[in-house]
Write a structure and sequence with these properties.
The chain is mainly alpha-helical and about 150 residues long. The protein is built from 3 helices and 2 strands, in the order ααββα. The chain has helices at about 1-50, 60-70, 135-150; strands at about 75-80, 90. The longest helix is centred in the first third of the chain and has 51 residues, at about 1-50.
């Protein structure tokens, strides 16, 4: 009887672990597929934000384009958060858990850069995205969309 119980217990544990891993794997694949499906749009959006070279609190075009993308993906967008005209939230669903993702998209002064792998300013002394925020803000939006689709 004891051996049968141990066998049954071990079988249940293995099945639970396998089911958990299968579920995680399915969610992971769904998230990957979401990002792949968005890849072209996200790349275009990132390139646009790169070209705007808007510094902190002046990201008017960048904010507008990111908010429009969020809206197109089914998020409810509220702009001007915290009294900052370019800050916004993009929300989906209700209840718990609440998942927050920060996306920065400002350029930095003095980092103007052509899209080449060596130092080559586009506008000498101008602002630019050598900091990668054009990627960070867009990647955050892509991640938020993937999570929304999993919900």
């Amino acid at each position: 009887m004891r051996k049968a119980f141990l066998f049954l217990f071990a079988t249940l544990i293995c099945c639970t672990v396998f089911a958990q891993k299968t579920h995680e794997s399915k969610n992971k694949q769904t998230a990957i597929q979401s990002v792949q499906k968005q890849f072209k749009d996200l790349t275009t959006l990132s390139d646009k934000i790169w070209s705007y070279e808007e510094t902190a609190f002046n990201e008017v075009k960048s904010s507008k384009d990111l908010a429009a993308y969020a809206t197109s993906k089914g998020f409810t967008v509220v702009q001007g958060i915290g009294g900052i005209p370019t800050a916004f939230t993009a929300e989906y669903g209700s209840g718990s858990p609440v998942i927050g993702i920060l996306g920065e998209f400002d350029a930095l002064p003095g980092l103007s850069q052509k899209t080449v792998p060596h130092k080559a300013p586009l506008n000498e002394g101008g602002a630019g995205h050598g900091c990668g925020h054009n990627l960070f803000g867009v990647a955050s939006m892509g991640a938020a969309t993937a999570i929304k689709e999993l919900i």
